[in-house]
Design a protein that fits this description.
By secondary structure, this protein is mostly helical. The chain has one domain (21-304). The protein has helices at 2-11, 22-33, 36-42, 47-69, 76-98, 101-108, 111-122, 129-143, 160-180, 191-211, 218-244, 249-256, 258-270, 277-304. The two termini are 26 Å apart.
Length: 310
């Protein structure tokens, strides 16, 4: 009986001392992440200034978190993975400034495509037939974003450069997750790569900010402060806290799909920006393909672990 009780205890999410379900912490993090597009759109300064300010404040927030966890110990691999995180954040901000928020977030969520392609080489994971279907569906969805984005168009609705930045953001996001799943990543707290990535951005943005000194308004300062301290720093802490308290990886992934769904909604409500019809169709294809692949792979994994009849 004690053994059964121990098994039950180990599979149920632990209720944190704060008294809330750990799923609420993960959901809160996802909701905060989904506000990134609207607050970037609300700024009047360029993408370099937004990148610099947001990452400076995010780095400080995460550094304080790691200090109190006594996990502020850098290594070369955390620096390496931090490069991909830095590229993800920088290209995402640029994409939001040069195309619609829907284009930026939907293209960033093509990250699993690059994970499926890179994992067999770097993590020695098998590439399955269902992976190929998912990759093909996502590539089909990605192609739709170019139907109303002419080359040289830098307008907000179809900016070609913004869409390219969104694609790069998705690629770097996928490679970032591959580095987090590498055995060497287990030696340090994953928040270290978030810290190093933001520090890389701060250093990289300094020349651009100095070359054209910005004159941010009070609203700009508020938006950038929110993006750094809350949308990145606090959201990451909430997410890791919820996962540490028992939220399964699959459940966290499914809750994560609220981010690309809500991001364009906030932008439409507060900025009035509407995604194109092609972007909606392409985004729906990408998110559906990734969601079905995530759920299906987890189901097969659980089924394969069941005891087989003799």
């Amino acid at each position: 009986m004690k053994k059964d009780a121990d098994l039950t205890k180990s599979t149920e999410p632990e209720t944190p001392a704060l008294g809330a379900s750990p799923y609420l912490f993960v959901l809160a993090a996802v909701l905060l992440w989904s506000t990134g597009g609207v607050f970037i759109k609300l700024t009047t300064v360029d993408s370099f200034t937004v990148n610099f300010g947001r990452s400076l404040l995010a780095a400080l927030t995460v550094a304080v978190y790691l200090y109190f966890k006594r996990a502020l110990k850098f290594d070369l691999f955390s620096l390496f993975s931090g490069l991909f995180y830095a590229a993800t954040l920088s290209t995402f901000v640029y994409a939001n400034k040069h195309t619609t928020a829907a284009n930026a977030i939907f293209l960033q969520y093509t990250a699993p495509v690059y994970i499926l392609i890179a994992a067999p080489f770097f993590l020695k994971e098998r590439f399955r037939a269902t992976d190929l279907v998912t990759v093909a569906a996502c590539i089909g969805g990605m192609s739709l974003f170019f139907l109303d984005a002419g080359i040289g168009n830098t307008g907000a609705n179809g900016g070609f450069s913004g869409i390219i930045a969104g694609l790069i953001s998705g690629c770097c996001f996928g490679l970032y997750f591959v580095t987090l799943r590498h055995p060497r990543a287990l030696r340090h707290d994953p928040a270290l790569s978030v810290l190093t990535g933001n520090l890389f951005i701060v250093v990289a943005m300094v020349p651009f900010v100095i070359a054209d000194l910005p004159a941010p308004t009070a609203n700009d300062l508020f938006a950038i402060g929110y993006l750094g301290v809350v949308q990145i720093g606090t959201a990451y802490i909430l997410f890791t806290y919820g996962v540490a308290k028992g939220v399964r990886s699959l459940d966290a992934s499914i809750l994560g799909f609220f981010e690309p769904l809500l991001n364009p909604v906030w932008v439409f409500l507060f900025v009035g920006e509407s995604p194109s019809n092609w972007a909606i169709v392409g985004g729906a294809i990408i998110i559906s393909a990734v969601a079905l692949h995530t759920v299906g792979r987890n189901y097969k994994s659980r089924f394969s672990k069941r005891p087989q009849p003799l």
